[in-house]
Structures are given as structure tokens and as C-alpha cells.
Amino acid sequence: MAREKYIKMLLMACASLSFLAILLIFLFIFQESLPAITRIGIPNLFSAAWNPDKGQYGMLAFLIGTLLSTLGGLLIGAPLGIGTAVFLDQVAPSRMANVIRRGVELLAGIPSVVIGWFGLIILVPFIARITGSAGYGIAAASVVLAVMVLPTITALGAETLRSLPPELKEASVAMGATRWQTIRKVLLPAGKEGILVAVVLGMGRAIGETMAVQMVVGNSSQLTLNPFQPTGTLTSNLVTNMGEAVGNFRAALFAQALVLLILSMILIVSIRFITRKKEA
Amino acid sequence: MDNDDNEHKLRVKNLNMYYGDFKALDDISLDFASRHITALIGPSGCGKSTLVRCLNRMNDLIDGSRVEGGITLDGENILGAGYDVISLRRRVGMVFQRPNPFPKSIYENVVYGPRLVGIKDKERLDSIVEDSLKKAALWDEVKKILNRSGQSLSGGQQQRLCIARVMAVQPEVILFDEPCSAIDPISTQKIEDLMAELKKNYTMVIVTHNMQQAARVSDYTAFMLVEEQGDPGKIVEFGDTNTMFTNPSDQRTENYITGRFG
User: Fold this and answer.
1) Which chain A residues contact residue B63 at CB under 8 A?
2) Contact A168 B102 (CB under 8 A)
3) Per-residue pLDDT tens for A151-174?
4) What pLDDT is attached to residue B2?
5) Are the Cβ atoms of A176 and B169 closer than 8 angstroms?
6) Total beta-carbon pairs less than 8 A apart between chain A and chain B
7) Are B74 and B9 in contact (CB under 8 A)?
8) What average pLDDT does chain A have?
């Protein structure tokens, strides 16, 4: 019995440690960005002007860059991922499905810097050629992010479809539905919560992705809605500037990190919300 | 269509069925009488569900399954390569062992089949819903809650909803694959009464573990058996239900219905 007790205490210590780590990171970032809020002020922090030399620390361009590239990545990646998931679970013969599943898992294991590099040497010149722009920007970042969210959405989407009761599919097929009608009218609606969670988790990955985006987004502080103009994201701006920032500059970067953290937390809370609605 | 085809809606002739290398059914020949109920009985694993799933080609869903022999519906071979399986399944509806309503409203469950063929007219759908739920003896219980989820109903009500869903496509044959094994006795009673009522217009096949149920509802009974583990399922005896339960001609049938095995 004593052993049981020790094991329980050990496990509890592990759990508390991870919780404490998260709490400390949050507190630390909050504390470090506090000077930005008090000394630079919220209006300046969320303005469109980013000139650290002149005391302008507006993150609006990066915030919009992050949101647009995430949205773009999902617009490309989510249909592809859901389509692949449906194909894996419902269409592909099992041997082919296994090969594709391994392939997608492999994609998840590719370091983001490698994907970013591909983006840099293939995608950016390609976009430059067809649009006549420099090639850097939200469009390139979106494609790179689509590749990065694909494994998450595919794996979780396929898992959701696999976990649906086989009786649903049988009922639909026995009613004379075609495979496509069964997928569209029964399986996807029945799995919509799980698929939504897959997309939101993919979104979480896209929002936080740094290296691959930084390599193709152009790293300017220009506020733009043109997907072919170089711009920046919160993460790319952080990683570009964190080495040399001091004082207010440093505090402003921490404020951006805090905004990133809050965005991620909103996503996590929304997942809880989606899954709770399902249970109700 | 000869005279026998008129009397027998579905006819199975020398049917062999395989899952990959495993032979599941051996030389099955069985005629299902029009507007009567035929019961398939036998111990677990004897192939009665497999046989019933050949009749609407649900086994097509299983990789590596194949059949030899013939099955005709109104004299037409349904196993042919070019045969329209979609229309077959609309003519031969199926009610499953576990009630399987879709996670949709009661209304949407019933109109699922009609919507598949593109019926959009609201009034027409409304009347299909009322009509089908009445045929399934469920209308009075659900007419005020048609927008509630089909999965919120009790097990017995769900099974009758599934029957209504099948009714909505106006099938000619209804296959029941152990329809009462997952529901309570009162609901079972309701479904048996319903089957007796539906017999006027539909040809029905019921797979059941429950011999009393077979004796109560069916006109004809086929007894199936797997002789040795790994052998395919065969029909031991087929005939009029009364005769079969009172005076079986095969010793194995007698052993089974008197509860000596299985």
C-alpha cells in the first residue's frame, strides 16, 4: 500500500510540474509585457505603425498577417485534409489507405524549417513568376501553413470518421444511398464536431508556426491585405527581432507574445465549447 | 415471369457465398413467398444474417466478399454485374439488429430516402412522414416532436422509426435482421403486431434468435446450421412454420427447436 501511495505522489508531482510550468510561462510573459502596456500604451501597441527606432510599436500589421495567413492556410488545408480523411476512411482500399496514412504521418514529422525552405526556393519564385511580385507574402505563407496543418486535420478527421458507428453507414447504404450521398448526408454531419475540433487544432498549429512562415512571408512591417505583398506575422516578427531588442522594444515584443498566447487560449477554450456541446 | 415468380417474390438458387477464402454459405436454395413472412433461424454464426444481407447486396460493402449462384427479384437476377444496386436497395429495405436512426430529427430520418431521389416538395414530404410513421405505428407518439432528434427516442421507438424510414421509400420487400434483439418485450410485441399488419402489402424476411418469435410471426421457417466449426452455413430444413415447429422432419431441427443445443 505504501508503494501505491508513492506512485500516486510521483504522478501528482509530474502533473503539478507541467501545470506550474504553464502558469509560470504565462506569468512571465504577462509580467514582461506589463511595461509595454504602462509605458507604450495600448493605442500605440495596436496601431499600424511599427518603427521601434521612433518609439512606434504598433503590431496591427503582424496581427493581421497572422490572422490572414492562418485563414489562408485553413482555406487550403482544411478541405484538403478533410477530403484526404474521407478518402482514407471511406474510399481507399485498405492497403492504399495505409500507404497514404504513413505518408501523411511522415509529413507531420518533417521539421518546419525544411518545409519553409521548400517554400523559399520553389514556392516563392513560382509565385513571383506568375504574379510579377516579389513572391513573398501571405499567399506563400498560407500554402506553407496548409502543408503544415494537413497532417493534423487529416489524422484527426480520419479518426473521427473511423469512430462513427458502422450502423450509420449501413443504414444509409441500405436505404439506397450512393457512397457519396452517404458521406455527405450522414457521415460528415455525424462527425462534424470532431472535424471542427480537427480544424481548430490545425488552426492552433498555424497560428503558432514560426520558422516556415518567417522564411516566406517577407518580414516587412507593412500593413497589407494584398497576399502577394511582403508583410509579417506575430511569430515572424518575434523571431526576427528578439535577439537585439531591449527596453521598450523588448516589452513590445512580449506584448505580441501575450497576444499570441491569448489567441491560442481562445482556440483551446473554443474546442472545449465544441466538445461540450456534443455531450449535451 | 412464370407462375412461381408471382408467388415467390425473391428466389435464391444454389447460392454460395465467400468472405475471401472462407466459404460462409453453401448451396442455399430458398424461395420467399410474396406477402408472407419467412423466418431464418439457427444458432449464432450459422449464416442467417449473411444470407439476408445477400438479398439486398449489403455484403458488397465487405472487401473480398463474393457470391455464386442466383438470386432473383420478380424473376430478375439481382447478382448480375450491371444490376442497379441502388434501386435494389430501395425495393428491398432493411431493418437492423441495433436501432440505427441518423443523428437527425425524427422528420429528417423519415424523409432521408425520399430526399435521396430528389423529392423536395414540403407538402409531399410532410405527407410521406405522416404516412410512414403511421405505418410504423409511431405517429401518435411522435407527431408533436418531429423536430426532436431521432436518437432521443427509446430503443423500441427508435426501431419503429427505422421501420418508418424504410416505409418512406415504399419498398416491396423488408428484411429484418434480428430486429428485436436489442429492445424490450413490450416494444418487441409492438413490432411483431406491426409485422403482422404489414404482411398484407409486403414480403418480409426475419432473422431471429428467438424461436418463439419465429413461431409467432412467420408463415415459413428455414433452419440453418453450421455442421462443424469452419464449415459453411447450410439450410437443414425449410417449410411451413407450423409443421416445422410441431413436426420437424430432421432430427437436428428438432434438437434445436426443443432447445437441446444452440
Assistant:
1) 93-94
2) yes
3) 999 999 999 999 999 999 999 999
4) 55
5) yes
6) 61
7) yes
8) 92
Range of the domain at A58: 50-163+197-279
CB contact under 8 A, B96 and A178: no
**A172 at interface of B, judged by CB pairs closer than 8 A:** yes
CATH of the domain at A232: 1.10.3720.10
pLDDT of the residue at B3: 60
CA distance to partner chain B, nearest, from residue A139 (Å): 39
Q: Is residue A57 part of a domain?
A: yes
Q: Are B56 and A174 a contacting pair at CB < 8 A? A: yes
- In this prediction, residue A25 has a pLDDT band, given cuts at 50, 70 and 90, of very high
Residue A179 is assigned to a structural domain of this protein? no
Q: Residue B116: its chain A contacts at CB < 8 A?
A: 175-177, 181, 185
A164 has a chain B CB within 8 A of its CB: no
Among the partner-chain residues A173, A181, A189, the one whose CB lies closest to the CB of B58 is A173
Q: Is B97 helix (H, G, I), strand (E, B) or coil?
A: coil
What is the least distance, in Å, from the CA of A88 to any CA of chain B? 15
A163 lies within 8 A of chain B by CB = no
Residue A109 contacts B where some CB pair is shorter than 8 Å: no
| Prediction pTM value | 0.85
C-beta atoms of B89 and A174 within 8 A? yes
Chain centre distance of CA A172: 35
Distance of alpha carbon B112 from alpha carbon B59, whole angstroms: 22
Which domains, from first to last, does chain B contain?
3-100+171-257 (3.40.50.300)
DSSP A198: H
Instruction: With beta carbons less than 8 A apart as the criterion, state whether A62 and A241 touch.
Output: no
Residues of chain A with Cβ-Cβ distance to B169 below 8 Å are: 175-176
| Pairs from A165-172 (Cβ < 8 Å, separation ≥ 24) | A165/B100, A167/B96, A167/B98, A167/B100, A168/B100, A168/B102, A168/B103, A169/B61, A170/B58, A170/B61, A170/B96, A170/B100, A171/B96, A171/B100, A171/B101, A171/B102, A171/B162, A171/B165, A172/B102, A172/B112
CA distance A45 to B108: 51
Q: Where do runs of H (alpha helix) occur along B117-184? A: 122-135, 139-142, 155-167
Q: What is the pLDDT along chain B (262 residues), one digit of tens a residue?
A: 456 666 889 999 999 999 999 999 999 999 999 999 999 999 988 999 999 999 999 999 888 899 999 999 998 999 988 899 999 999 999 999 999 999 999 999 999 999 999 999 999 999 999 999 999 999 999 999 999 999 999 999 999 999 999 999 999 999 999 999 888 898 899 999 999 999 999 999 999 988 889 999 999 999 999 988 889 999 999 999 999 999 999 999 998 888 766 4
CB B182 within 8 A of CB B99: yes
Q: Work out how many domains chain A is built from and give that number.
A: 1
Q: Residue B261: what pLDDT?
A: 61
- With 90 as the cut, is the pLDDT of residue A2 above it? no
- The minimum CA-CA distance between B97 and chain A, rounded to whole Å, is 9
